[in-house]
C-alpha cells in the first residue's frame, strides 16, 4: 500500500503568486524559477526512518542528462538553483512542502511523483501533472521584463488592436488574443508537439524548450500550415471559397480551437495579421512577452539585393514580372528575450514572422531577428536578417517593360518609401506607438545610408563600395513633368470614386502628354484582382502650367471586384513623344459604413447585459446574407453568430444580444458584420466590467 492518502496542489494560492490565475484550468500552472506550494497527507508520519524523493519529468523520453527529468530529495532546506523540495511543516501526517524549479527549466507539462522509503520498503506514487511556463517576473529568466506596465501589456493583456491600411491612411482593427480562455494553453502546448522538430527527434526538441529563442522559431513555422501540421493556411488570391475571408476573423481563439477540433488540419484562410495575432496569443500564453508590429510599404525582396523592382507596361498596366513586391502593410511579431548567442546589447525585442513568404533553412519560418541588430545592418547574423532588413530598408525601383521590343527602361528609383510608420499598440491604451526609430536611423540621415551600404556590402561583397554608391545615387534623368493623384471627394464603398490626375510642366516649353490610366482592385499585398476602369487621353500643358484631369470610377464598375481590403490601385503612365516621363500611382482605400455598438447597462461579473448594434445600409439596393459574429475574452464564452434579415435600400437595422461577463476590468467586445455587398465591417467596444 502506498504511504500517500491525498494531494492538495493549492492551486489558487500558487496561481495568484505566479500570475497564472487568469487561466481557466483545473491543472496547476506555475512559472519557472519560483517556489510553489503543496500539501500531502500520508498514512504514517515521516520520521528519521522514512525519507521522500520527488521526480519531475516532461516529454516522452525524460532524462536527467537532457534536463527533462529531475530527481530531488525532500529536505529541510532548498539549496542551489536546480530542482528542490523543502518540508515546511509536518503536523498530523499532513506535510506542507515547497518546490523550486530552475529558472532555465524546459517549459511544458510535467509529471510529479514521490517515492517514500521506509526500512528498505519503497513505494512510488504519481502525484499528478502541472504546467511550467516562462517567467517574465523573474530576473534569472531569459524572458524577464523589468517594467510592470510592459509586463501587464505584453504578457497579461488578452485583447489588442492591429494597425492596417496604408501609410497616409492608417486604420485599426481589434483582435481577441484570448490566451487565458479555456483549452487555449493546452492547444499551445500541442502546437509544440506537432512541430517537425518534435516529430523528428522528440527527446532533443523537449530538452530545447528551455530557450525562448528556439520556441519562437518553432512557433513561427507552426502558425502557418506550409510545411507541417501548422495552424493557418494563407491565401492572398482574393478568392476565399472553401474557407473564411481572412478579414472576418475577430481573434485567435476560434482559429486555434478549430485547428484542434479538426485533428490539426489547417484553418482556412489567413493573411499576415491573422498569423501575427495567432502567434501573439501563443507567445503570451507560454509566458514570452510579445507584441504585434505593422510595417507600412513593406518590401518583399526575394533576391537579397535590397531593391524591389516594380514593372509597368506602356499602357499603364501593372505587370506581374519578377517576384519582388511591395505590400501596403505587413504585420509581424516582436518577442522579448535575451539573445544568449549574441552579445547582451542585442537582447530585448526580436522579430518573429509567421506569415509564409520565403523559406528559411528549408521551412517557412522567420526569426528571431534582433531589432537592435537590424538597425545596425548586421545582416550576416541569425536569423533571416537580410529578408527583414529589406522589408524596412529596400530601395523601390520602377521599370517600364515593352513586351513588343523586350525593352526594359528604368523609370525611377526611390530610397525612402519603404518601411514607414512602423507601429504597435501603446502600453495601456489602444493608441498607436511609432517604433520606426527602433528599426532604422532617421530616413535620409548619414547613419541610415551608412547602415544601408554596410548591409549591401555584406550581402553582395562583390560590389565595391563605389559601385554601391553609384547604384543608389546614379542620377536619374530629370523628368520634364511631375504628377500625382489627388482625392477630390470622400471615398466610401457604394459611391463613385472621384480623383484628379494633377500634372505639372516643369519646363518653359509647351508639352503634349499622352496618358494611359488604369484602375485595379487589389489585395493589400499588391495582388491584382481585376481591372475596373481605364482611360487614355492626350493633354496639353503650357510652360510651367499645372492642370487637373478628373478621374471618375462608378460603383457599378468596381462593386463586383472589390475585396474586403477595399483597395483600388490607380496608375497613370505619362509619355511625351514616346518617352515615358513619369509613372503616377496611388492606392486608395474606400471606407465601409460604420457599426454603432452600445452596452445598455453597467456590466457586472456573472450578470447578463444587453449589447445593441446599429447598422444602416448605405446602398440603393437590397443587401442579403447578413451575418454578425461577436466575441470578447472575459465578456462571453466562445463566439456568437447571428443571422440577420435582408436590409432594404437605405434601411437601418438594430440587433440586441446578451453577453455574460466572466471577469472584471475593461474588456474588448469585437464584432464583424458581413453580407453580400460588404465582406467585413468591423466594430469594437471597450466594456468596463465591475465585480
TrEMBL record:
It comes from the Eukaryota. Its EC number is 2.3.2.13. InterPro entries: Ig-like_fold (IPR013783), Ig_E-set (IPR014756), Papain-like_cys_pep_sf (IPR038765), Transglutaminase (IPR050779), Transglutaminase-like (IPR002931), Transglutaminase-like_sf (IPR036985), Transglutaminase_animal (IPR023608), Transglutaminase_AS (IPR013808). Its cofactor is Ca(2+). GO terms for cellular component: cytoplasm; extrinsic component of cytoplasmic side of plasma membrane; protein-containing complex. The keyword Transferase applies. Keywords: Acyltransferase, Calcium, Metal-binding, Transferase. Ca(2+) binds at residues 393, 395, 443, 448. Binds 1 Ca(2+) ion per subunit. It catalyses: L-glutaminyl-[protein] + L-lysyl-[protein] = [protein]-L-lysyl-N(6)-5-L-glutamyl-[protein] + NH4(+). GO terms for molecular function: calcium ion binding; protein-glutamine gamma-glutamyltransferase activity; structural molecule activity. Pfam families: Transglut_C, Transglut_core, Transglut_N. The active site is at residues 272, 330, 353. Residues 264-356 form the Transglutaminase-like domain. GO terms for biological process: keratinocyte differentiation. Belongs to the transglutaminase superfamily. Transglutaminase family. This is protein-glutamine gamma-glutamyltransferase. It comes from Delphinapterus leucas. The gene is TGM3.
